[in-house]
Amino acid sequence: MGTKERNVARKRRVRKKDPRLVRAKVAGFNKPRRTPSHPKKSHIVVAKVGDKVKTIRFGQQGAKTAGKPKKGESEAMKRKRASFKARHRKNIAKGKMSAAYWADKVKW
Predict the structure, then answer these.
(1) CA 27 – CA 18 distance, rounded (Å)
(2) Which of 25, 30, 58, 104 is the most exposed place for a label (fewest CB within 10 A)?
(3) Model's pTM, two decimal places?
């Protein structure tokens, strides 16, 4: 096999997807997705920081969260969002390897 054929063969080689990504059925690392059929948790993400990888389930299934801030949002929802962020501030600060970080980012 010449160098040309070897280079073509090398290009065709596809990297295998990490088995944790396949099992969680997510698009990639740090890409959360909804899990409507899970009995307890509403989302899943395969978090990766450096070479550490961790599968995290987060969010209460069926919870009425505030979502993204909306124009004309009620005062009750603003207070609800502020309470969540205050209550979980220390855990959110831990970064991508904590469920609180992802819940804050995705649901609140």
Answers:
(1) 11
(2) 25
(3) 0.82
